Design the sequence.
């Protein structure tokens, strides 16, 4: 395998060989250690999602699909109603792990529809259908990422400088990724990009994961702190910004990792195209605008302590730690999906996808 394949074939989430647990790469240990975790209980899966051991909207969806199937195998129910009751308990619990990425509830709802749509079948058969469905969610993500990467690549030229935020590569998805997918596909075709990866405070997905993936794939990557995006744009080093997404509203407003909207504002000022890349499963037509998107708030320790040798602020200092922000649709040049590239007005172009 060449370097690019080693990275694009990283399996950040899969079903265990005995088909009863979920195996993930613990993303909190990267880039220093590659450790795999086997998740078998509802608490294991919930905690892995909550603590970002598995993260990135599509990967969370895939993990939830495998997870709810493995938990369904453990249900001891007398009849269908008892099975459904236990299934829904697990579903509600997993769904509470992280609110912003729509892929979590999207995958869980998809799995639930298999159960409710087969109420006349034996539980053993329902379990078989659930297995097929979670494997399908994963397979579909592989082809969606490929298609998104193709469309995204059509927007770039060889030698371009690209700025990206957070991680939307193979670890967050399947194979190529979304926001960073075109970079891997382009490299495979002999193109050379100069990538600026925002470190992505406070959890450093850009430094720990994106810079790791790109470096290992032999792509020219330069790590910058989040507050350096302006200077690299002003220097003329960035020809396009590409990011992933956690939930896209019907009007194109896009929730993605905290700091994304600032990058989009800077890009607008410097006249640089700002592209959002993601599968249609991340578009939530029930959300009319970004105002309907629930933003996850996280612990102050992530800002004050995590990754520092000693605390960088007094314990009593208040923190505001939103995990995501919403980029206004009018800052987004295009939204790239597996079905094609959508341009403004997004209320029309996104609706046409469904
Ligand atoms: O909190 P995270 O690390 O799960 O946030 C991830 C992002 O914001 C990604 O950009 C997004 O999920 C797209 S992943 C293809």
Sequence:
């Amino acid at each position: 395998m060449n370097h690019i394949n080693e990275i694009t074939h990283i399996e950040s989430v899969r079903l265990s060989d005995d088909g009863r647990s979920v195996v993930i790469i613990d993303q909190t240990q990267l880039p220093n250690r590659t450790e795999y975790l086997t998740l078998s209980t509802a608490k294991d899966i919930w905690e892995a999602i909550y603590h970002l051991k598995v993260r990135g909207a599509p990967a969370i969806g895939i993990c939830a699909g495998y997870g709810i199937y493995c938990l369904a195998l453990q249900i001891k129910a007398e009849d269908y109603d008892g099975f459904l009751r236990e299934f829904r308990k697990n579903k509600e619990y997993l769904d509470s792990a992280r609110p912003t990425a729509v892929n979590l509830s999207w995958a869980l709802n998809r799995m639930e529809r298999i159960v409710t749509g087969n109420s006349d079948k034996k539980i053993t058969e329902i379990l078989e259908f659930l297995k097929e469905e979670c494997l399908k969610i994963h397979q579909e993500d592989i082809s969606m990422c490929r298609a998104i990467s193709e469309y995204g690549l059509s927007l770039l030229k060889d030698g371009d400088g690209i700025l990206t935020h957070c991680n939307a590569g193979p670890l967050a998805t399947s194979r190529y990724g979304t926001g960073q997918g075109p970079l891997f596909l382009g490299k495979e075709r002999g193109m050379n990009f100069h990538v600026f990866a925002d470190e992505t405070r406070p959890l450093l997905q850009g430094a720990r994961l994106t810079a790791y993936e790109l470096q290992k794939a032999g792509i020219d990557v330069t790590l910058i702190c989040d507050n350096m995006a302006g200077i690299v744009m002003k220097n003329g080093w960035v020809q396009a910004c590409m990011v992933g997404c956690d939930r896209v509203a019907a009007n194109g407003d896009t929730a993605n990792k905290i700091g994304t909207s600032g990058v989009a504002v800077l890009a607008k000022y410097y006249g640089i195209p700002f592209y959002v890349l993601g599968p249609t499963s991340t578009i939530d037509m029930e959300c009319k605008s970004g105002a309907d998107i629930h933003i996850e708030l996280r612990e102050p320790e992530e800002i004050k302590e995590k990754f520092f040798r000693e605390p960088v602020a007094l314990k009593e200092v208040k923190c505001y730690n939103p995990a995501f922000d919403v980029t206004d649709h009018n800052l987004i040049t295009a939204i790239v999906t597996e079905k094609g590239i959508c341009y403004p007005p997004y209320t029309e172009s996104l609706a046409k996808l469904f």
In short: Residues 20 and 74 are 9 Å apart (CA to CA). The first strand starts at residue 13 and ends at 15. The chain has a mean pLDDT of 97. The radius of gyration is 20 Å.
